[in-house]
Amino acid sequence: MKQKTKIFLFxxxxxxxxxxxxxxxxxxxxxxWFNTFFAPEWxxxxxHILLFIVVGFLVPWVLFDQSPIKTTLKxxxxxVLGIGLIQEVFQLxxxxxxxxxxxxxxxxIDLIASLTGFFLYxxxxxxxxxxx
Length: 132
Hints:
86% helix; 6 helices
């Protein structure tokens, strides 16, 4: 079970980091759908929230499950910030512009969403531990 979860996490991170703008350019219909669906700013924010809630749940479970909770939280935050920065840098390369307010906002959303995922992880596994 843990091995499949680890593979899922790394696939999720790769999909998250990969600039989808590059991928959808292959097919004009997919490109049109993607640009229509993700054009509103609120949808961009919702996508970041959903993607990073999953990261915030899976990273501590897969990578730091045996660590004390404070260490797990600290390590999860560092991993999430690393993933978020890599994602933002790739997006900036595609857009050919510099780092600015929008990227800082995205990183804050990523961090808040990941902390939400971490909190869900903590609740979920605390309940499992209490049953044992």
